[in-house]
Amino acid sequence: MFKEFKKFIMTGNVIDLAVAVLLAGAVGLVVKGFVSDIMMPIVGQFSGGLNFEDMKIVLSAAVEASEGVEAKPENAIMYGRWINSIINLVIVGFVLFIIVKGYNKTKKPVEEAPAAPAGPSDNDLLTEIRDLLKK
């Protein structure tokens, strides 16, 4: 069983998948940093300095006990975070679109293989067989 597991793990597909997962995690961090640290301040600037993260609908306010300690936390719908998520999706989607479009331009156009010459039809073959049988 150990030999089978070792053979499975050492195949190229599993190693390629592991590398792809690790790279995807690293790329995810880079994309998240780009969107949150570079693009969102620009979006906030165009929206009049509005920070979407702070937008919410308070359902019930926080209840404070003595000396500023919260007895019950605030219950709120944080729709600003959802707006940020949508903006992140649009930005990442656009950047990926540009990357894929650029990549597709670098690929050589695929030339279609010439069509195979059309062979005789079934009727032609049957006619030929009939003629051979008559001889």
Describe the structure.
- The structure is a single chain.
- The protein has helices at residues 2-9, 12-46, 79-106, 122-134; strands at residues 57-60, 63-64, 70-72, 75-77.
- The strands form two sheets. It has a two-stranded antiparallel ribbon with strand order 1-4. It has a two-stranded antiparallel ribbon with strand order 2-3.
- The protein has a single domain, classed as Non-ribosomal Peptide Synthetase Peptidyl Carrier Protein, Chain A (Orthogonal Bundle), CATH 1.10.1200.120.
- The chain contains four helices and four strands, in the order H-H-E-E-E-E-H-H.
- With 135 residues, it is mainly alpha-helical.
- It is 62% helix and 9% strand.
Global shape: elongated
Helix content: 55-70%
User: In total, how many domains does the architecture comprise?
Assistant: 1
Question: What separation lies between the terminal Cα atoms?
Answer: 67 Å
CATH architecture: Orthogonal Bundle
If you consult CATH, what is the topology? Non-ribosomal Peptide Synthetase Peptidyl Carrier Protein, Chain A
SSE topology sketch:
Elements: H1 2-9, H2 12-46, E1 57-60, E2 63-64, E3 70-72, E4 75-77, H3 79-106, H4 122-134
Antiparallel strand pairs: 1-4, 2-3
List keywords for this structure.
single chain; 135 residues; mainly alpha; Non-ribosomal Peptide Synthetase Peptidyl Carrier Protein, Chain A; two-stranded antiparallel sheet; two-stranded antiparallel ribbon; 4 helices; 4 strands; elongated
